[in-house]
Amino acid sequence: MPYAMLHAKAAMDELKVAARSAPAIMIGVTIAATALANVPGMGDAKANWNSLAKALEVEYPNAIGNAVFLSRAGWIADDREQFLNAVATFSGDLQKLSGLCYNMESQVDQVRDRYALYWMEIGVLAATIMAYILAAQAMKLTPYLRAYGEILLNRLSALTNAMIAQKTKVLVGFLGAAGATLATSSQSLGQLFNIQPTEGTKIDFQRAVIPVTPPTQWIAPKKEKATTAQPEKPEKPR
To answer: Which of 48, 121, 133, 210 has its CB surrounded by the most CB atoms within 10 Å?
Structure first.
């Protein structure tokens, strides 16, 4: 089991142990339970976004570059410039998409780290409270300090619940801001997959017609001819 999950489980178990001596702490246990999350799954998601970003940044551009290089030999039509322009536009979109993937990776990583920090703080709080509860329990065993021990337990329970509620509130606030940022990035990500041509570039493929009738006169495509410099003729002696 990953460290983050062990940390959360250990913190919850210690809070439940504390609640046996101070039942009111079950309120804090219930609040903390709302913050349980699949932290290892967030780590997997981070790794997946990073892998996709690197592929879009390196692998796919390399494949496109190789295609452009191989197309140099034997390309004799007049549309090579249009092809190169389309490749440049597509490569630019790949870079934008790669940047968005890196952004998503960073945001998922921040959320994962915030959850890990939350449970670390809850674990420290639970360990501290347990020490005070043991002291209060010892006071209750003494006739003269029994009332003080009961008061201490009640105050510890109220303080523990308040601190857990406050930490959870901060976590929820962070997640709200992170969720808004993730939603914006997801929207930008979706826009790259919904690019529709308009006006002059829009083609109605239901009405498009490609003539296949051979021409009456065959015209050879243009080829680049290598020019060789002609040697200069020596001047005749006068």
So the answer is: 133
CB-based contacts of 25: which residues, under 8 Å, 6+ apart?
15, 18, 19, 129, 156, 157, 160, 161
Whether residue 31 is predicted with pLDDT greater than 80 in this model: the reply is: yes
Q: CA 150, CA 143: separation in Å to the nearest integer?
A: 12
Give the Cα separation of 160 and 150 in Å (integer): 15
| DSSP for 156-189, written as a single string | HHHHHHHHHHHHHHHHHHHHHHHHHHHHHHHHHH
Task: Tell me, rounded to whole angstroms, the distance of Cα 107 from its chain centroid.
Answer: 5
**Residue matched to tokens 């329970």:** 157
Cα 106 to Cα 53: distance, rounded to the nearest angstrom: 11
Q: State the pLDDT confidence band at 73, using cuts at 50, 70 and 90.
A: confident
